[in-house]
Amino acid sequence: MSRSITLGQYFPGQSLVHHLNPRMKLLSLLLVLALLFSLQSYAGLVVLFFIALILITTTRVPFRYFLRGLRPILYIALFALIIYFFFTSGGVVLLRVGFITVESEGVREGTFIILRLVTLVFYSLLLTLTTTPLSLTYGLSYFLKPLRYIGMPTEEVAMIMAIALRFIPTLMEESQRLMRAQVSRGADFESGSIFRRAKSLVPLIVPLFVGAFRRADELALAMEARGYRIGARRTRMYEDSIAPRDWLILAVLLVLLITSVYLGF
Amino acid sequence: MVNRSEFMIEAKDLVYNYPGEEETSFPALSGINLAVRRGEYLALLGPNGSGKTTLMKLFNALLVPSEGEVRVGGISTADEDKTAEVRRYCGMIFQNPDNQLVATTVEEDIAFGLENLALPPAEIQKKVIAVARMLGLEQLLQQPPHMLSGGEKQRVAIAGVLAMQPRCILMDEPTAMLDPAGRHDVIETVRQLNRDQDIAVVHVTHFPEEAVFADRVIILNQGRLVMQGRPQNVLSDIPLLYSLGLQGPAAAELAALLRKDGFNLPPQLIHSRELVHSLCSLEPKS
Question: Cβ–Cβ of B91/A218 closer than 8 Å?
């Protein structure tokens, strides 16, 4: 069971997208999102959508991972679609049921919104599926670095997040062990009302927390014994380097964004 | 680092009280005088609460003596500016393999100590690979810690300490939570390092069998050093071990029982092989 726990959604691979610098990937995603929202024309959106599809194929991440990623926005999309279809007027009347009409302008705008939403999710998934949670964490912490000057311990926060990632599977294993131990003594986690079930989790959560605190104590000791000191300068085994292609991609996106804003695509 | 004395670790008139526990009947440690020689394998036995773990923490500058002094590689552990040097000189392995691995992959965990020394990345990578090769962990470098067996985790922890090129490794019951195969792997790894690289080892253990191979065995009880000597002398003293609630190695215990039954066995038997040998060479009773 514990072996099937995947952290985040990372899917290993060797593609260009996988190898881009995580920091630059984050920045690029931001630019793409800005671009998506500044685009006014169908043509531009369709081009971005197809670029996303091409990038997805190069990563060799199975397409169902991306489809699965669409699931959370399904209802929002459906809702938006209904609103636009039925309540936007303009163009030709396509369908008339009683006093409700579906007009062509509504269909056009509805699909535009949906396509934008789907493209947005695809690009976000391109980031999270091709970057390990750890490099994402370090990438994010890089942008938080300026906060150091106002006294935020950014390096330490990054370390805390990395340790949290490291211990998620360990704690999952422990919670399963505790659960089995309780079940073997007659505990019932599955039946009864929501309140009953929530209440039956208490004998699980208390030992889990106690265990986690003890772990934290020992880990702190072990880290100290290995020379970790808060505030001291450290290096990293793999310092991520920014390649020319990272800059190139960023520049292209920036140019696209500026032209789309100025020319009103 | 230049070490002028021949001792890796020296404890002089060491006393330690845990803060807030000064009023208890006896301090956690008192009157400890001990020196660990270069390349020595020292086994530390004692019942629960005898101060073994406290002593290890004092040796690693995780604790500072209440009275007396601990010198590691000639540096006093009370010198806060040199704590990093003390810890590099003398690495520590803990009991629970899960709670001492910090990073999300084996290689990054081995690198953790080196990263704390702020070495350049290229150098860290080189050292990590060298250490992994030495301990046969190359295949596991990309694995996350939760996918390893207990024995593998402890060997990764040893690798992490070894990467810092210590002159001494402190081990606090490193095998207590392992299965027999993992225990064997860890002990073999440490003995090999001790033999081939002249790294001193201080090994706290509950298993008398693990102390059999030490150069010297030390027994602690109620914070005091009760006995020390060669394993043959200490571990064959079954009455003493029993009086402290400890056990002897299986061979020594069996030999004691056989002697009681009138078998004429030589003293100081602690290795199973020796016992078998002396049993086989007994004169048959007529």
Answer: no
pLDDT in tens, A78-122: 898 888 888 887 777 877 777 777 888 888 888 898 999 999 999
Interface A:B, Cβ pairs < 8 A: 94
CA distance B32 to B9: 12
pLDDT < 70 regions, chain B:
1-5, 23-24, 285-286
- Pair B138, B167 in one domain: yes
Residue A228: its chain B contacts at CB < 8 A? 112, 116
As to burial, measured by CB atoms within 10 angstroms (0-12 exposed, 13-18 middle, 19+ buried), residue B80 is exposed
Domain assignment present for B2: no
Q: Is the pLDDT of residue A243 over 90?
A: no
In a domain, B1, yes or no: no
How long is chain B?
A: 286
Residues of chain B contacting residue A7, judged by C-beta atoms under 8 Å apart: 104
Same domain for B107 and B190: yes
Q: Are residues B216 and B260 in the same domain?
A: no
Measured between beta carbons, the chain A residues lying within 8 angstroms of B160 are 226
CATH code at position B145: 3.40.50.300
User: Is the CA virtual torsion A56, A61, A67, A69 positive or negative?
Assistant: negative
Confidence band, pLDDT 50/70/90 cuts, at residue A51: very high
Please check whether residue B77 is in contact with residue B70, taking contact to mean a CB–CB distance below 8 angstroms: yes
Q: Are A170 and B104 inside 8 Å of each other by CB?
A: no
Handedness of CA A110, A112, A114, A117 (dihedral sign): negative
pLDDT band at A1 (very low <50, low <70, confident <90, very high): very low
Alpha carbon of A164: minimum distance to chain B alpha carbons (Å): 10
- Calpha distance B150→B155 (Å, rounded): 9
Cross-chain residue pair A215–B124, CB shorter than 8 Å:
no
The pLDDT score that the predictor gives to residue A183 is 87
Residue A55 has pLDDT above 60, yes or no: yes
Residue B197 and residue B276 in one domain: no
Query: Nearest CB to A219: which of B102, B113, B128?
Result: B102
User: Quick one: pLDDT at residue B285?
Assistant: 63
